[in-house]
Amino acid sequence: MTDEAGPWLVVGLGNPGREYAGNRHNVGFMVADLLARRVGAKFGRHRRAVAEVAEGRLGLGGPRLVLVKPLTYMNLSGGPVAALGQFYKVPPGRVVAVHDELDIGYGQLRVKCGGGEGGHNGLRSMTKSLGTKEYVRVRFGIGRPPGRQDPADFVLSDFNAAERKELEFLVDRAADVVESVVLRGVEPTQNLYHGG
């Protein structure tokens, strides 16, 4: 498979700063970091956007990935994504957002193109800045908060000890899902990964 249609923009959503690194809301950054290691790329500050970017190819001569970690906070993620989309000439259909998802159980992975934002401020910002909902989302389930905990506090808290035992495996699987979207497309990826 070649990249005749140009690169893919893979956006890990999260918040910058060490204090947020282990938060549920930062699982997108975790997946982006793993994908960068897989393609042998290092993140560096981009000159045209408030973001860190790493570039590499999926396999020898495979599709080009532009991995993005916006350095704005979550609710302003769309600006850097739109700027990089223009810079790399990537249409919204080749933009993949990797994000935490409250509405599915912990560790479940779902892929979709378009649809609502489900109250996710990073997605809301991307939709506004891109001017369309028609980009791909890789949804990493974090489940609902326990008891009466505020969802905003829940997403900004770290994964608990039980979750951390599985986290490395699940981040690895989420990176596999992103690669599958790029190599096979959304529907075949749904067929492969939506069973579990």
Automatic annotation (TrEMBL):
Molecular functions per Gene Ontology: peptidyl-tRNA hydrolase activity
Record's subcellular location: Cytoplasm
Pfam families linked to this entry: Pept_tRNA_hydro
Keyword annotations: Cytoplasm, Hydrolase, RNA-binding, tRNA-binding
Marked site: Discriminates between blocked and unblocked aminoacyl-tRNA: 15
Binding site for tRNA: 20, 73, 75, 121
Record-annotated active site: 25
Gene3D superfamilies, per database record: Peptidyl-tRNA hydrolase
Function comment: Catalyzes the release of premature peptidyl moieties from peptidyl-tRNA molecules trapped in stalled 50S ribosomal subunits, and thus maintains levels of free tRNAs and 50S ribosomes. Hydrolyzes ribosome-free peptidyl-tRNAs (with 1 or more amino acids incorporated), which drop off the ribosome during protein synthesis, or as a result of ribosome stalling.
Family: Belongs to the PTH family.
Full protein name: Peptidyl-tRNA hydrolase
The organism of origin for this protein: Micromonospora globbae
